[in-house]
Specification:
Length: 264
């Protein structure tokens, strides 16, 4: 695993404003988009991402025959993933570092039991309060990720962690690193690093998934025929390579990795 320069106090931009030295302010700005059209576009982007993330959660639950009755998402953002998971757990909660994001999630999820901002460290729930805790695309944003995995394992019997695996040849290119830093990525994980975090938190790995992501994801920001064609070629090459040699792909380009682990 490589550690991004931002962890050492570098500057990152989200909404073009702030440093990750103050994570709360960084993610508050990230969810406060003054331009209505841009806010709508970002909402659609998160919704699209949530479809894949929710499919991974459902697949992991199906493979392990897990039927969570209570679920918590730690770092739930605007609630897009919880919304895409509707129907899986009867009871669901979300906690989020950024108050504006928690407010968006509260509005999107009137059927949730609790959607609240929290300090990013201590989930305001009893030990074992949930069947399942989800940390989705959060750990790469947290300066020291292990305590948050330990906290997830404290409040839930089963934990799903999903991150992008960015310790690869394509994502190591300077423009890609710059983009990852801009959106607050502090860590560039490989599978071994995530497995290490999960087991250091006292969890036993049950099932894993990797996903090179659908065409719609690669094409979302593509404008014009040429860009959409390039996105199509990228998607087709990655999806094909992933079908043939899924593990080797992790050294070449970014895939999303989701792991379900449980307390022994
Ligand atoms: C890329 S978003 C992912 C949102 C959502 N989990 C999803 O997968 O759609 C990263 C989220 O992590 C949150 N975050 C950053 N540091 C955190 C921390 N220490 N604890 C909880 N959430 C944190 C950010 O506020 C942001 O909402």
């Amino acid at each position: 695993m490589e550690r991004g320069q931002l962890g050492e106090g570098g500057r990152g931009l989200l909404g073009g404003l702030l440093t990750v030295d103050d994570p709360r302010a960084f993610y508050e700005a990230g969810y406060t988009q003054p331009d209505a059209a841009e806010a709508l576009r970002l909402g659609r982007w998160r919704e699209l991402g949530a479809r894949s993330k929710a499919a991974h959660v459902r697949e992991l639950c199906e493979r392990t025959k897990l039927r969570p009755r209570t679920l918590v998402e730690i770092g739930c953002g605007d609630g897009a993933l919880l919304a895409a998971l509707r129907g899986l757990p009867p009871v669901f909660d979300g906690f989020e570092l950024s108050a504006p994001a928690a407010e968006l999630a509260r509005r999107a999820l009137p059927d949730a039991r609790r959607i609240e901002p929290f300090d990013g460290a201590e989930v305001p729930a009893e030990d074992g309060a949930y069947d399942l805790a989800i940390l989705s695309h959060v750990l790469e944003h947290v300066p020291v990720p292990l305590p948050l995995v330990v906290e997830a394992a404290r409040v839930a019997h089963e934990v799903i962690v999903e991150v992008p695996l960015e310790d690869n040849r394509s994502a190591r290119r300077p423009d890609k690193r710059e983009e990852a830093a801009r959106i607050g990525h502090l860590h560039f994980f490989d599978r071994a690093a995530v497995r290490g975090l999960v087991s250091a938190a006292g969890l036993e790995r049950e099932e894993e998934i990797t996903d090179p992501l659908p065409y719609a994801h690669h094409a979302f920001f593509a404008e014009g025929f040429g860009a959409r064609g390039a996105a199509f070629a990228k998607w087709a090459a990655r999806a094909g390579a992933h079908r043939v040699a899924p593990r080797s792909c992790e050294a070449w380009f970014t895939v999303h990795y989701a792991v379900l682990a449980r307390r022994p």
